[in-house]
Write a structure and sequence with these properties.
Residues 30-124 form the Histidine kinase/HSP90-like ATPase domain. By secondary structure, this protein is of the alpha+beta class. It has a single domain (19-140), classed as Histidine kinase-like ATPase, C-terminal domain (Heat Shock Protein 90, 2-Layer Sandwich). The protein is built from 3 helices and 5 strands, in the order βααββαββ. Strand 2 (75-81) and strand 3 form a beta hairpin. The longest helix is centred in the middle third of the chain and has 21 residues, at 49-69.
Length: 142
Amino acid sequence: MTGQAANGAWPSASPPAAERLLHWQLSGVAELPAMRAQVRRAMGPSIDPDALDQLILALDEMASNALRHGGGGRVEASVRSTDTGYLIEVSDAAAARPPMPAVDRDPSEGGLGLYLIARMALRHGWYASARAKHVWALLPRS
């Protein structure tokens, strides 16, 4: 797949500089519908509809992965703006565990969201801070 390291992990890289547009602190997947609705309300009038759908899909996938597999604790998610696109960044408590797309799994069992995001993204990656893993994807404006 495009942009992936040979072992299936996302590349270790820092995201581009970007201006914060939206930010959430999440504690459970039940909060994801409200997050998606807020993105539609806040960004819908000013963004290409297809780009908006991709942005919401990637944000939802990354946030749900962090909530389900991120080691518990607080998950933070944000949408930022760059000159070329929209930067999605999600952090969780699993600082030592890189994002790993599913390998050798039947597509009907799920786990293919990271592949999809990597294909949609201009760039993607992850990095660790002292207490968190940060996973990011830069999606095009249109």
